[in-house]
TrEMBL record:
One of its GO terms (biological process) is ceramide metabolic process. This is Sphingoid long-chain bases kinase. It comes from the Eukaryota. SUPFAM superfamilies: NAD kinase/diacylglycerol kinase-like. It comes from Sesamum alatum. Residues 229-368 form the DAGKc domain.
Amino acid sequence: MEKSQTISKNTSLRQATQQSLRRLGLCPQITTGQQTSPVIFPEKRNSRGKPATRGDISVTNDDLKKAKVEEHRIDIGDEQCDLLGYEVFSGKLSLDKRKSSKHSEVQTSENMNLDMVDVKLTSKALIWGSEMLRLDDVVSLSYCVGLRHFTVHAYPLRKSSCGLFVKSRRSRKDFRFFASTSEDALQWVNTFADKQCYVNSLPHPMASKKQSSDSIFNEFPPESYIRCKSPPKVLVILNPRSGHGRSSKVFQELVEPIFKLAGFELEVVKTTSAGHARKLAASVDFSTCPDGIICVGGDGIINEVLNGLLSRDNQREAMTVPIGIIPAGSDNSLVWTVLGVRDPVSAALAIVKGGLTAIDVFAVEWIHAGAIHFGTTVTYFGFVSDVLELSEKYQKRFGPLRYFVAGFLKFFCLPKYSYEVEYLPSQREERKNFSRSGNYRHVRALH
């Protein structure tokens, strides 16, 4: 009797443990004698085990329903929606995958319908199929009213191998999309224009030399007009000596095509001597460059333009003039600090997309001379200042290495520097030293 009681107790305990394990979804096949490992998704477990009895199947189905309620799933689509912004417009388009840029408009409707895919434009990207194009990489669109296709011009990042290293660089890529009707194409173009993308209006292919494109454009109803932003008008100040003399080539081959594609109206002025950029910024008429001044070169030309603007009589108005930076010199620390980019293509793309970043400006005053010099990054006195001044002599010969050469030469004839520093005490120091007279503290040092 004792053995039977112990056996019944053991069986009851075993059944209780099996039921509790089944509720947790951790023991679906214990009745068959097979040991299995815990699973996260019970409905996806391996089906190679032995089949269970009918009673067990009914129990496991109920337990599976309870387990599904307790499951926590992460939908990757929802995560991408947050990362790619909210949906602005959607429809069906066909991507022209041919490499040649000159295509005829004549295409059969059957081929167009076969190639049609679902395309979605969000606040941050254009998505079709498994492809995605960020709006920050889009420069402009090209479109002709009355046609079914439009072209998106972009500079996306691409990985390119350089020996043992893999670097990401931007290169131009055009995407030509076909819509089912010209009205749909116009709606897509206007949606891009609402997202601050510039639209290049192309001449109609059926327009003859005698018949202007304006007359053909007037044949379309007013709702076919494109809501496009006005082209920016800027002044470009270029230092041809920056970057070991390669700044002009960088601007003409890499930067200028981006600005022209975005519809910029450029007035390019090349500096001829030191201080030329400062004179230009101090005397330029702001009505000729209402959208700002773009500096092509290193940190030096930006400093000259800044000092020229702040030396004007209308200083408050000059402080509102945007300054664009294209890194093409040996020192490009400011553009890296402000924009977080180093290459001229990314800097030009940031200027095209717009947006302003406020920076701090400090002033250094020479008391005896009465001159004030403004800066944005750092100011030097003593040895480093002399090295920078001497390095200008070796700019053409050594390029970026001129700083090491000038520092090596200056080290052998190191002079003594005397200086006096005046500073305003903090509030804590004023409380501690309230009995002391004077608002300034003086420090003298000799080296």
